[in-house]
Amino acid sequence: GIQVEQSPPDLILQEGANSTLRCNFSDSVNNLQWFHQNPWGQLINLFYIPSGTKQNGRLSATTVATERYSLLYISSSQTTDSGVYFCAVEHPPGGTSYGKLTFGQGTILTVHP
Amino acid sequence: KAGVTQTPRYLIKTRGQQVTLSCSPISGHRSVSWYQQTPGQGLQFLFEYFSETQRNKGNFPGRFSGRQFSNSRSEMNVSTLELGDSALYLCASSATGDSTDTQYFGPGTRLTVL
Question: Most exposed: A35, A74, B44, B114, by fewest CB within 10 Å?
Answer without folding.
Answer: B114
